[in-house]
Amino acid sequence: LPEVASTNDFELSRALKEKGRLTGKYEPLNENAAIKGLLMNWDTLAVQYKDPETGNLLPIEIRVPSQYDDEEEPSASATQKGKRKAPPA
User: Fold this and answer.
1) In terms of DSSP bridges, do strands 10-18 and 45-49 run parallel, antiparallel, or are they unpaired?
2) Interstrand relation of 10-18 and 21-28 (parallel, antiparallel or unpaired)
3) C-alpha angle 39-31-50 in degrees, rounded to nearest 5
4) Greater model confidence, 54 or 62
5) pLDDT category, 13, cuts 50, 70, 90?
6) In whole angstroms, what is the distance from residue 11 CA to residue 41 CA?
7) How confident is the model at residue 6 (pLDDT cuts 50, 70, 90)?
8) Is residue 67 situated within a structural domain?
9) Which residues of 34-72 are buried (b: 16+ CB within 10 A; e: fewer)?
10) Which domain of life does this protein belong to (predicted)?
11) Higher per-residue confidence, 13 vs 35
12) Residues 35, 69 contacting (CB under 8 angstroms)
């Protein structure tokens, strides 16, 4: 992550949606508008850092963590539970 010295080193950006689904694109929030009018419940926000040399916004990299620990994987029996085949007739 880039080093942040002031609030001028980054922008808060919101995820853009199309037909209710995330597009993977982000737009900076209007810094003069109230948050209440900009966001809906559960909108995704990201910190978008600025390049220290040019001041241009850097691309946002999102990494979604695994829902399982590294050592823990879902057991096969849990996924097959309740799915028995009928005995041959």
Assistant:
1) antiparallel
2) antiparallel
3) 105
4) 54
5) very high
6) 20
7) very high
8) no
9) eeeeeeeeeeeebebbbeeeeeeeeeeeeeeeeeeeeee
10) Eukaryota
11) 13
12) no
* N- to C-terminal Cα separation, the chain: 63
**79: in domain:** no
d(C-alpha 15, C-alpha 29), whole Å? 10
Statement: residue 9 has pLDDT above 60: yes
Q: Provide the residue range defining the domain that includes 2.
A: 1-55
Domains in the chain: how many in total?
Answer: 1
Place of tokens 């808060």: 12
Q: 78 vs 5, which has greater pLDDT?
A: 5
pLDDT at 37: 78
* Residue 82 pLDDT exceeds 70: no
Q: How many CB atoms lie within 10 A of CB 16?
A: 12
Question: How does DSSP classify residue 13?
Answer: E
In a domain, 85, yes or no: no
